[in-house]
Amino acid sequence: MRTITYSEAIREAMSQIMRHNPDVFIMGEDIGVYGGAFGLTNGMIEEFGAERVRITPISEAAITGCATGAAMTGMRPILEIQFSDFVMIAADNLVNQAAKMRYMFGGKAKVPMVVRLPGGSGAGFAAQHSQSLEAWMTHIPGLKVVQPSNAYDAKGLMIAAINDDNPVLFYEHKLLYNETGEVPREEYEIPLGKAHVKRTGSDVTIVATGIMVKKAMEAAEELEKDGILAEIIDPRTLVPLDQEVIINSVKKTGRVLVVHEAVKRGGYGAEIASMIAESDAFDYLDAPIKRLGGVETPIPYNPGLEQKAVPQVQDMLQECRKIVME
Q1: Which of 65, 168, 290, 301 has CB atoms 3.0–4.6 Å from 126's, for a disulfide?
Q2: Where is the Transketolase-like pyrimidine-binding domain (predicted)?
Q3: What is the DSSP string of 265-319?
Q4: What is the pLDDT of residues 184-234, one digit of tens each?
Q5: Does the CA dihedral 242-245-247-253 come out positive or negative?
Q6: pLDDT-based confidence at 114, cuts 50/70/90?
């Protein structure tokens, strides 16, 4: 199988669907000749034209409002928000309109739109361009939230998101754009709400999201040298969440660490931890549920401090070793 990058996988997913579904179009700032803030739409305006690769003014609120209206009238827009931090400017149209329409019209109005959101730290973009705010959106009924951790999942989840009849927020970590992986040429879907067991183990479950999956896999390699076998669960979508896979893993290992890049306080890890505690997996726990998340500070510009602000492999090693020893 050929190998492509995470960003190429997302572009290929969008392009393949646009070739046979004229209702799908993309819109965003500088997504034409410039190719978008991170080059994800390179070459798409040459293939699909300016009518279907729509360059917009710098107004996330306007982009999201237009997309909501277009989706309600039968189109399937894909929005690019240059940095996920800027989605707050679009919050009214997204949270108060797009998320509510299908419910308020008794299912007669569908809102099939995808909002692409480059997020996360590590690229030196500092506090206003490096946040991980996905937990905010998981709180809103009517929105689905996707967070792919590799190229294969990015393509399959993007195709599923485009084909979904609800607003889907698609969180892409900027540091994953150049990560490569095996990706089939043909179209395929990964259903929203299906987690993936990235690695099997018997001593501790690590539930990791986004770029933390990659770091958790590195941590698992090191833990194995100590005789600790970690099972890695990638939820892939936060809403809907595949509870069954997580619960079954915790029942097997009896220990769990939940890891995400977003600030620990109020982060989605608390939702996963509560879900485990409220399930029958609670009776199988041999140690308290632990969470690792970002520290309570804006993301620093200084590279050293930026790295300190979010969980790293060493942090996972330390927590897992403590959990197993308890």
Answers
A1: 301
A2: 4-179
A3: TT-HHHHHHHHHHHSGGGGG-SS--EEEEE-SSPPPSSHHHHHHTS--HHHHHHH
A4: 999 999 999 999 999 999 999 999 999 999 999 999 999 999 999 999 999
A5: negative
A6: very high
Beta strands at 24-28 and 53-55: parallel, antiparallel or unpaired? parallel
**CA separation for the pair 107, 13 (Å, rounded):** 27
Residue of 57, 143, 50 lying closest to 96 (CA atoms):
143
Q: Which among 235, 308, 307 has a CA at the least distance from the CA of 273?
A: 235
Q: Is the peptide bond before 77 cis (omega within 30 degrees of 0)?
A: no
- Following DSSP, what letter does each residue of 18-85 receive, concatenated? HHH-TTEEEEETT-STT--TTSTTTTHHHHH-TTTEEE--S-HHHHHHHHHHHHHTT-EEEEE-SSGG
Residues forming beta bridges with residue 258, ordered by sequence position: 207, 291
Strands 76-80 and 114-119, by their bridges, are parallel
DSSP 95: I
How far is CA 76 from each of CA 64, 153, 171, 238, 292, rounded to the nearest angstrom? Answer: 12, 21, 18, 22, 37
Active-site residues, by number, are: 129
Residue 326, pLDDT above cutoff 80: no
Identity at 7, one-letter amino acid code: S
Query: What is the model's pTM?
Result: 0.97
Across the range 231-249, mean pLDDT stands at 98
Q: How far is CA 34 from CA 37, 45, 46, 176, in A?
A: 8, 10, 11, 20
The three-class DSSP label of residue 132 is coil
Q: How far apart are CA 206 and CA 201, in angstroms?
A: 10
Q: Could you give the 3-state DSSP secondary structure of residue 90?
A: helix
DSSP conformation letters of 207-236: EE-TTHHHHHHHHHHHHHHTT--EEEEE-S
